[in-house]
């Protein structure tokens, strides 16, 4: 056995051991068979390949001319397919569903149309870009485009023939599919057409079957937001809430919502506003209390009178406070709130407020509206100013979309310059992410 054959034999044995390790990992992780599916940051594959020189559409002056037309006799395994290995690749996720990687393949060519008693080593290496589809499914097809070199050693290491005589730059478009068994282990199959760009290069097909190992979970909950940007990495959520859900659809993410299953107001931390008793009901309750106590004791009667006087004073004080509050702060129904770093209109309560404004404007055509965009003082001043402009514009677009004429709408961007609420408190900063609607 010559040196090259011994080297190939050693590589084959080593690769068999790698497959054994992959198989062992599979059985050790069999309890994860039905675990959640997600993309991995790194994918390492190891497998065997079949090189087919026949259906390559070889032209005159190409090595081993004539061969069959492209894809002719594609499945003639016994006559044309040369099985060998290993084929190994390493790829890195660079964007959602896009992987950039390198691949190396070794084989042993013994079947070439019209050639007898041949045994030539095959080598291939390339850089590739792969686009994967159905990332959240178990079966994930992909397309891949590679560029590298490939060739068949017909004496390269035993004579002085130039390297370029046997190796050629190669373009390698391919397609295939991955079958995910667990979050980190699966099977990959692919077929590529390796088009030689040099005159002495040999175009060929290569089919791979590999076991792959995925490392690193980038989107554990499968909501399309990578873990390092996902504030709720174990629960599927929405991009506008940085990966957290909004179960009740009120525009407040569940972690910040004290009533996550009931639609509510931002000012009430996501809970609905409690209904206040009317003054009439309060007075009626007081009268009922008198009736139940009776008038048998003058002392009790005097106490009741004293209580009534205090109660009236408290009510007057509360009413005065309410008036001051209304003067100091705008009507809650005229404030449209937004999540942090967002200009999207969200939540049933917000939509209801806007519909009430639209109804008023459409019923009274002489009215106009000013939209003041505000923001918290978190982050960069310029970004906050632009964000407040975007918020005002999105409300304007909503009004126009419902029939309000654009010439009746004015927009003003205030950013963090003129806060409505106290920007020195967490709740104040939350409430300042808003648009104030002023009808005049």
Helix percentage: 25-40%
Tell me the domain tally: 3
Largest sheet: 8 strands, antiparallel, barrel
Pick out the low-confidence regions. 25-37, 275-285, 287-308, 318-327
Percent of residues in beta strands: 25-35%
Question: How would you describe what is shown here?
Answer:
It is built from seven helices and twelve strands. The protein has helices spanning 3-28, 77-80, 279-293, 298-328, 348-363, 381-401, 426-431; strands at 40-52, 81-95, 98-109, 120-132, 139-152, 167-180, 185-196, 204-217, 335-337, 369-374, 409-415, 434-439. It has an eight-stranded antiparallel β-barrel with strand order 1-2-3-4-5-6-7-8. It is elongated. It starts with a helix and ends with a strand. Mean pLDDT is 77; it is low at 25-37, 275-285, 287-308 and 318-327.
């Amino acid at each position: 056995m010559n040196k090259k054959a011994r080297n190939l034999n050693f590589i084959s044995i080593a690769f068999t051991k790698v497959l054994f390790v992959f198989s062992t990992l599979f059985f050790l992780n069999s309890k994860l068979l039905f675990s959640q599916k997600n993309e991995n940051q790194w994918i390492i594959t190891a497998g065997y390949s079949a090189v087919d020189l026949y259906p390559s559409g070889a032209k005159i002056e190409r090595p081993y001319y004539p061969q069959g037309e492209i894809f002719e006799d594609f499945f003639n395994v016994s006559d044309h397919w040369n099985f060998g290995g290993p084929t190994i690749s390493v790829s890195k996720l660079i964007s959602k569903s896009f992987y950039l990687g390198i691949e190396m393949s070794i084989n042993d060519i013994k079947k070439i149309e019209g050639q007898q008693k041949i045994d030539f080593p095959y080598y291939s290496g390339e850089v590739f870009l792969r686009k994967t589809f159905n990332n959240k499914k178990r079966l994930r097809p992909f397309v891949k485009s590679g560029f590298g070199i490939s060739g068949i050693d017909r004496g390269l290491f035993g004579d002085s023939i130039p390297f370029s005589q046997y190796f050629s730059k190669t373009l390698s478009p391919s397609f295939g599919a991955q079958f995910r068994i667990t979050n980190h282990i699966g099977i990959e199959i692919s077929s590529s057409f390796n088009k030689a760009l040099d005159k002495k290069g040999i175009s060929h097909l290569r089919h791979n079957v590999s076991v792959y190992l995925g490392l690193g979970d980038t989107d554990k909950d499968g909501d399309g937001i990578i873990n390092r940007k996902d504030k709720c990495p174990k629960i599927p959520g929405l991009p506008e809430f940085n990966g957290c859900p909004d179960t009740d659809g009120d525009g407040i993410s569940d972690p910040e919502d004290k009533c996550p299953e009931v639609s509510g107001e931002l000012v009430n931390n996501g809970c609905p506003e409690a209904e206040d008793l009317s003054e009439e009901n309060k007075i009626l309750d007081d009268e009922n209390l008198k009736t139940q106590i009776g008038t048998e004791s003058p002392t009790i009667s005097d106490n009741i009178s004293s209580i009534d006087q205090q109660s009236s004073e408290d009510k007057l004080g509360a009413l005065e406070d309410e008036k001051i509050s209304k003067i100091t702060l705008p009507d809650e129904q005229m404030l449209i709130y937004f999540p942090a770093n967002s200009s999207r209109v969200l939540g049933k309560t917000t939509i209801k407020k806007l519909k009430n404004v639209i109804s008023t404007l459409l019923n009274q055509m002489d009215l106009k509206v000013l939209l003041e965009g505000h923001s918290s003082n978190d982050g960069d001043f310029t970004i906050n100013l632009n964000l407040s402009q975007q918020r005002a514009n999105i409300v304007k677009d909503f009004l126009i979309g419902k029939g309000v004429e654009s010439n009746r709408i004015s927009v003003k961007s205030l950013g963090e310059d003129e806060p409505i609420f106290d920007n020195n408190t967490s709740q104040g900063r939350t409430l300042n992410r808003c648009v104030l609607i002023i009808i005049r």
